[in-house]
Amino acid sequence: MNRILGLDFGSRTVGVAVSDALGLTAQGVEIIRREQENKLRRTLARIEELIVQYQAERIVLGYPKNMNNTVGERARRTLEFGEMLKRRTGLPVEMWDERLTTVAAERALIEGGVRREKRKAYVDMIAAVYILQGYLDSRARETNE
Predict the structure, then answer these.
(1) Where exactly are the structural domains of the chain?
(2) What is the model's pLDDT at position 69?
(3) Number of other residues whose CB lies within 10 A of the CB of residue 30
(4) Residues 13, 111 contacting (CB under 8 angstroms)
(5) What's the CA gap between 8 and 78, in Å, rounded?
């Protein structure tokens, strides 16, 4: 099985995680940063490099719905980014409900004793790990049922 790339798309960053070759666990890879929210060319180019590097066959993109299940501005931008990824990479892009992943990532970093200044640097990557791990766990459950 080839790997899966997990992405947490933010206004200025994209947290990146990748699955192991068996599709069981997610590991954080990096955080792609950009100066301006709508400057995505370099971000997309870096994602393409990571797809090649990890031989990813699919992308799981965190879908930031509102807590009441409605779709807000951030979710609309994420859908547009997902369409860009599909066109640019030719890979399937699956949207994955990411509600509370950033909260969970922040909590994990706090519990790990990571200082506040450092937490901000890692939270997007850890959120990408949670997004991808949730997707992998869901697929494993479906396989076992």
Answers:
(1) 3-144
(2) 79
(3) 15
(4) no
(5) 9
* pLDDT 10s digits, 24-38: 999 999 999 988 877
CA 23, CA 3: separation in Å to the nearest integer?
7
Counting every residue, how long is the chain? 145
User: What is the DSSP pairing of strand 93-97 with strand 13-19?
Assistant: unpaired
Helices and strands in the chain: count of H runs, count of E runs:
4, 5
User: SS3 helix, strand, coil % of the chain, rounded to 5?
Assistant: 50, 25, 25
Closest by CA to 63, choosing from 127, 9, 118, is: 9
Neighbours of 143 (CB within 10 A): 8
Average pLDDT over residues 38-67: 93
Contact 119, 109 (CB under 8 A): yes
**Superfamily in which the 3-144 domain is placed by CATH:** YqgF/RNase H-like domain (3.30.420.140)
